Amino acid sequence: MHGPLLATYLADLARTASGRPLRRLQFRLTRPLFLGDRFRVEGEPAGEDVALRIVSGDGTEHVTATGALR
Fold first, then answer.
1. Residue 14: exposed, middle, or buried by beta-carbon count in 10 A (0-12, 13-18, 19+)?
2. Which helix H or strand E contains 28, and what residues bound it?
3. Structural contact between residues 55 and 62, judged by C-beta atoms closer than 8 angstroms
4. Assuming Cys at both sites, which of 9, 39, 42, 68 could form a disulfide with 24, CB separation 3.0 to 4.6 Å?
5. CA 5 centroid distance within chain
6. pLDDT digits (tens, 9 = 90+) for 5-56
């Protein structure tokens, strides 16, 4: 799957879960995802920021990110 599309999923989670806009999103693609792969987008607060990641069904981490909220 296309990296910027995955980053969009991360940004959407951060915005909707926090109710605040993003000031910055930094992400790192660590393993590829392919069409048909099941995955989930996860996030948790990290101080003023939010820690985000995309993992596949077996728990493999594919993308990590940090979002700075306004």
1. buried
2. strand 22-29
3. yes
4. 68
5. 10
6. 999 999 999 999 888 899 999 999 999 999 899 999 999 988 889 999 999 9
Cα–Cα distances in angstroms (integers) from residue 59 to residues 24, 31, 55, in the given order: 26, 12, 6
DSSP run (H or E) holding 63? strand 61-69
Q: What is the pLDDT of residues 13-23, one digit of tens each?
A: 999 988 889 99
N residues, the chain: 70
CB–CB of 52/41 below 8 Å?
yes
d(CA 11, CA 66): 10
23 touches 70 (CB < 8 A): yes
51, exposed or middle or buried, with CB in 10 Å at 0-12, 13-18, 19+?
A: middle
